[in-house]
Every structure is written in C-alpha cells, then in structure tokens.
Amino acid sequence: MTIKDKITGAVIDDLVSRSQRGLNKYNTTLHENNHQNMLQHGYEEALDLAQYLKKEILTLHTVQDLIAHYSNDAELGAKIREIYGEKQADGDRAED
After folding, report:
1. Type and span of the H or E element at 90
2. What string of DSSP letters covers the chain?
3. Average pLDDT, the chain
4. 84: how many CB neighbours lie within 10 A of its CB?
C-alpha cells in the first residue's frame, strides 16, 4: 500500500509502533484483550487528551501574547525561559 499523504503515513507508523509496544508490554494484542472495559478506558484517554490539548492551547495563547508584548527578541527569549524554563537536550524542561 502506497500512502501519498505524509501525515497519514506518520499516523500509520505511530499506530504500528504503539501496537508493537503494547504487544511487548502486555503480551497480547488489543484484538485479543477481552479483560478491560474499552469504552471506559477510551473515555478516560479522551479526557486526558482534552486536558493535554487545553494546556497547549493556553500555552500557545500565552506565547502569542508575549510575542505581541516583547518586540525585542532577547527580551522575549528571556521571558519565555523565565516562564517555561530552559529546554534540556532530551526535550524535557529543567525543574526549578
């Protein structure tokens, strides 16, 4: 199967990777798993997703407000680092 859309291809790759991680961790496939309430589990995952999305939306609005307020890039960078911390090499932020 040839996927022309790079985004769709990336999602398919993520699904395959996640499926393999689940198989390695739980020694079963999602199809074979009849031990969990998938509706409840999915609902809880959706609630988590809603929180993650809202956090990023609020962060984006904050950053956009900072960009509008600080015309000097150095001052903007300093303020962003003050609020969000320094980014580490592994992508995590430094703890205060």
Report:
1. none
2. -----HHHHHHHHHHHHHHHHHHHHHSS-TTT--SS-HHHHHHHHHHHHHHHHHHHHHHHHHHHHHHHH--SHHHHHHHHHHHH-PBPTTSPBPP-
3. 88
4. 13
Q: What value does the mean pLDDT take over residues 49-58?
A: 96
Give the Cα separation of 17 and 23 in Å (integer): 10
User: Can you give the residue ranges of every domain in the chain?
Assistant: 1-35, 37-96
pTM, to two decimals: 0.60
Backbone phi, psi, residue 87, to 5°: -80, 135
Structure tokens at 28: 């079963």
